Amino acid sequence: MYSSSWCPFCHRAKRLLKSKGVEFAEYNVDAAPALRSEMMNRSGGRRTVPQIFIAGAHVGGSDELAALERAGHLDAMLEGAAP
What we know:
Glutaredoxin
């Protein structure tokens, strides 16, 4: 997950993933132009945080992650990502 320290949507996404018991890598783009560029390249040009990837697949931001949870699809995605 690409995130920022100040972003409430990042905190919401992290809270949801933690509630699922998921370990995830977090890349803070606050002071890292290279990470922000990487995020934009991987996400098809999106500039906002968070940008979330599960098993390499771009999910989107916090709203998309929450929508997956509401639709009952998040658990299956996370299970497929487990090593």
